[in-house]
Amino acid sequence: MPIEQLADRVLLKHPKGASAEILLYGATVLSWKSGSAANPEPTERLFVSSKAALDGSKPVRGGIPVVFPCFGAPTHPEHSKLGQHGFARSEVWIFDSIVLDNEAGVSVRLTLEPKASITEKYERPFHLAYVVTLAEHQLSTDLHVENTALSTTSPLEFQALLHNYIRASSDQVLVTPLQGVSYYDKTEATDELRNCPKVEQRTYVDVKRFTDFVYENAPGTYQISSPAGQVEIKAKGFKDVVVWNPQAETGVKIADMEEGGWERYVCVEPGYVRGFAQLNAGETWIGQQVLTAKL
Ligand code: TA6
Prior knowledge:
By secondary structure, the protein is mainly beta. The protein has one domain (3-293): Beta-galactosidase, Chain A, domain 5 (Distorted Sandwich). The chain contains three helices and 21 strands. It has helices at 116-119, 191-194, 247-251; strands at 3-5, 9-13, 19-23, 28-34, 43-44, 66-67, 94-102, 105-112, 127-134, 138-146, 156-162, 165-167, 174-176, 182-185, 198-199, 211-215, 221-226, 229-236, 240-245, 265-279, 284-293. Strand 17 (221-226) and strand 18 form a beta hairpin. The structure holds 6-O-phosphono-beta-D-tagatofuranose. 6-O-phosphono-beta-D-tagatofuranose binds at residues 59, 72, 84-85, 163, 186, 212, 242, 244, 267, 269. Pfam families: Aldose_epim. The active site is at 163, 269. One of its GO terms (biological process) is carbohydrate metabolic process. It catalyses: alpha-D-glucose 6-phosphate = beta-D-glucose 6-phosphate.
């Protein structure tokens, strides 16, 4: 079956072998198995920690968590009651509809609207839709944010990010092109240093050491290469990108990180995280990414 809805997740199957799995909790893509033009055999392209909670007790450690309306610790007054990375990744979304089901691919739409577990900590009216599309060698995930306020209230201000855990050997993986892009190094010891912009000098960014870099106004297309394969990310609407790997230095402190898990992924996360996107009443913003298995 190309699209199968289970109690807590949706399974997508492409006619030529690729597959994806989406947990309704957090609309978290847990798995994307895909071949490439060069190597048709589907392989897992995402990392999920074996210690990840998949029961809705906490955000999934891995896959593609959806980050909204804030990235990192909240800084906006309207987000003061929210936790790290906002609420989208820790709420159960609704399987809304099948968007596509043919030889080209399969696509589903999930939605999230205000409900008690959200409105008790976030008062803004909103509507989120998340469209996940599986093609032969691609997975796309599009986040639609609508300001459903009726009157001319102040704009809806938010941040959004797709927190991709790309499976790769972290001592060999390289991310490009980021040379010349301004970034903020969150591994620095003080707020002053963390808020001091640097410029990426490297042609190829590695994560051999603890890396938590927020690149601002980044190119939008990224190649993630390691001996295990190559994944390309093409993002639209997400002006920034985060590259993160905790390595053992901080990975050992992450309770739901499997032993040595940091050795098996790199996070390359298209986002709108420097500043806040603004939506007037009735407007919709779309952040899109297309992941392509290149090798
Ligand atoms: O996207 C990178 C980051 O902000 C890191 O600072 C690290 O905190 C990571 O997200 C994971 O955050 P989480 O809340 O899932 O533990």
